[in-house]
Structures
1.
Amino acid sequence: MAPMGPRVAVIEDDASIRRLLVRILEAEGYGTIAVGDGDAGLRAIHEHQPDLVILDLSLPRIDGHELIRRLRADPRTVALPVIVLTGHTASADMIAALDAGADDFVAKPFQQLELLARLRSAWRMRQVTLKMEDAHAIVVALVNAVEAKDVDLKDHCRNLAFRAARLGAYVGLRDQELDEVAFGALLHDIGKIALPEAILHKPGPLTEDEIREMRLHPVIGERIIGPLRIARDFSPIIRHHHERWDGRGYPDGLAGEAIPLGARIVAIADAFDAIVRGRVYRAARTLDEAIEELRRHSGSQFDPGLIPLFIDEIERVGSGTPPPVELPSVARLAVAVPIRPDPVPARPRP
Ligand SMILES: [Fe+2]
């Protein structure tokens, strides 16, 4: 019967050590794939997709350092845990392997208990990162769904997440607070999934009933993402992204700083992206026109403290100035997957 534990790729050129490692691992319930050189190791990893790697540094063909570098450069193996076996624990070898992306070391000759403890620890870390990747993948799937439903939103949520995270970073948000802005921006219009296409794609003005229905999308969005545990912190952004600084927005008519900061940031980035990209019913306008419009509505629709900072950031993005901190990965998503044919061209609303 196949072992149930995680699978370990053992890449070690010394046949007796390789056999010993396999025996120890299999006795503990791990599955194993054992190979004797770097080239075969790389092929085995891609073919069998192990959960962990034990790697000797001095290998024929491709050496251990190069192998780690190649794993880290490939999105499929960027997070695969690699434990390095080395006889030179104090040497520049170790530093080079760490720099290349090794996760941990075991000195040769290795102690069985230590090796197993390090494997367990690497496996625990891997499970945590897998859970995070799952949560990330769910969010991306939801973004794909909403962008597929509404042609106006194609790439919009991703652009907006980038702009909103830039502004968030600029005003000093960090770590979890910055993540919340990026997630909230990405999913701000998720509630539009529940709206009829006839309203979303209507080229002419909406009737009063249709406007009422359209205005439900922040509340519907909050309910849609409610079951996601990671959504607890950013659901206020989804609910309040159409509030206005002067209190005349919806759904709750909040005003000024009673509107969560993340929602005030997303409202500005949302408007900006809509202006420069255009809508089904309105042609795109230039960057200068967009900035002019943001300034015109500063203090009525938008937080007047944030508008100048957002405009600063537009210029800094334009000139290639990096943000003060690295943006959350959800703010750096690639462009949307092509789900639908190209959107219908912008038509003037009659
Ligand atoms: Fe919206």
2.
Amino acid sequence: MPNITRQMLRDYLHDALPEAEMAAVEKALRGSPDLRKLLDGERDEEDRGDHTVGAIWRRERVSCPARDQLGGYLLGAGDPDLLDYVEFHINVIGCPYCQANLDDLRKLQGE
Ligand SMILES: [Zn+2]
């Protein structure tokens, strides 16, 4: 049996898997009552609504600020609303992509 992760099940529920994986999940589900239970669990969890910021971010795909906006944030320059947004994105949502980008920019500025 291929390794079906919870993330794959979630993507399966959202029709977000590539066709080959979709078929693999379906096949695995047919062969495994345990996996079907897991899928039901995932569905329930989604129905209840996962309201953590991270989940909302993943669901809504809140967009990442552009690199020059991150640069502005480091300097404290720019539209205050935008700075608030970046602050939220970095510190509350904790977007790993933007944190890495910000670290990178800090290094550049330090040189
Ligand atoms: Zn981001």
